[in-house]
Structure formats: structure tokens, C-alpha cells
Amino acid sequence: MASVNVKCTVNNCYFWAKDNMCSADSILITSDQAAQDHPRMSFGNEEEGNLIQAIGSTPAHSMTETACHTFKSR
Question: Which residues are registered as beta bridge partners of 22?
Fold first, then answer.
């Protein structure tokens, strides 16, 4: 699998690392609309796989319409 550098400025996230790097092994990102429609969706949630299958693609028109569900408070 290819290594990807993900920058993140949310410094109260468990996965935030030095130099604004995300240290998560995998990341879940959806559109804001999907986040609003499914507020219980979170990375690592036991229902995550089923929910992602059920909602399918979640298009966004701009980066401001996207949400990272990998966030975990420190």
C-alpha cells in the first residue's frame, strides 16, 4: 500500500502528530451532508462498514463540504 502524508491542524485530535501530520493508519472522509444524515458514523465504530456500504458515494461540491470522521479527542 502506498504511503500518504496527510496534513491536519486539529491539534486536539488523538492522531495529530508533530508538524501537523495525521498519524492514523486509515482515514474516513465523507460529505458534510452524509455526516449530518448519519451523526453516529465515526471511524472505528462497529457499524462503520455497514453504514459506509449503505450510504455509498457522498459527493461534495467543494472542500468546505467534507468532513473527517477519523477525529478522536485526546
Answer: 16
